[in-house]
Specification:
Length: about 280
């Protein structure tokens, strides 16, 4: 028993060491960006050292001021005004559509689901021009309404597919028991199904939050006013507004911008991993 315990301990220690090394390798770009925020241009390009020679918050302070009259407080406010409603609307619309596909039978169900999955293969470059033309006719350009509308109308088939896969793993007996107790379809969804869907909903929310938060192309196409810019557009604007780029300041603002995503991922990591695992294995 002693020898077995020792072997098990050695294996556990080695496993943690391997995981720690892989984790450091994956986190190294973020660490480098953080320490580069304290460096000058000469130090960034003239040295391979990770640590800075001296530490000052000047780059963070100057970077936060942004360009022109707007600070990054405005850009962050714009970003959350865009990202949070889009994430919530995506969850609501995708859940309703996924519930319909997973639990109900209706004409052309398989054909419609196949068509839905086929839209995953459409590149954004193919649909961006028709979308822009349509939204321009509606007068939605330079607003956040195009993003809200796409989320509210369940235009993200990846999340629908993921939620359908998860719903297929939930026994139908629960629905039947709820119907016997007098629940309707909507009440069954709200009180029985949704609590069981927490892992997949957390995964979908995290994906959508990250993708919308990082989205540069669509924000550039549909948003024209600087006062409505998100952080992704603001970072690019700070590059264009300077003749001599202070890369330390750029690294400082980049680290501040990416920090919410890092914190969100680690806080929701348990549900994220569980949702991905179960969505992939069931159905």
């Amino acid at each position: 028993m002693n020898r077995k315990t020792k072997k098990k301990t050695v294996k556990t220690v080695l496993s943690y060491l391997v995981i720690a090394v892989i984790g450091l390798v994956l986190l190294y770009p973020i660490l480098w960006m953080f320490f580069a925020a304290f460096k000058t241009n000469d130090e960034i390009f003239g040295s391979t050292r990770l640590l800075a020679s001296h530490y000052s918050l000047k780059n963070f302070i100057d970077g936060w001021k942004g360009s022109g009259t707007m600070t990054y407080a405005t850009y962050f406010w714009n970003t959350f005004r865009l990202v949070i409603p889009v994430t919530l609307l995506t969850l609501v619309s995708s859940t309703l559509v996924a519930y319909g596909f997973a639990r109900f039978n209706f004409p052309f169900k398989k054909a419609l689901f196949s068509l839905l999955i086929a839209t995953l293969m459409l590149p954004n470059a193919v649909i961006i021009i028709p979308r822009y033309t349509l939204f321009a006719k509606f007068g939605w350009i330079d607003t956040y309404i195009p993003f809200y509308a796409l989320a509210a109308l369940a235009c993200y088939p990846f999340f629908i597919f993921m939620l359908v896969q998860f719903l297929r793993g939930i026994p139908r007996d629960l629905d039947e028991s709820a119907y016997i107790d007098g629940c309707g379809t909507f009440r069954t969804l709200m009180q029985i199904i949704l609590p069981l869907m927490k892992p997949s909903l957390f995964s979908a929310a995290l994906f959508q939050f990250m993708w919308t938060y990082n989205d540069y192309f669509n924000s550039l196409i549909f948003i024209n006013s600087g006062k409505k810019y998100t952080v992704s557009l603001a970072l690019r604007l700070s590059l264009d507004s300077e003749s001599v780029i202070n890369w330390g300041k750029i690294m400082a603002t980049s680290f501040v911008v990416v920090l919410p995503l890092i914190l969100l991922f680690f806080m929701a990591q348990k549900y994220f991993v569980e949702g991905i695992a179960t969505s992939g294995l069931k159905g």
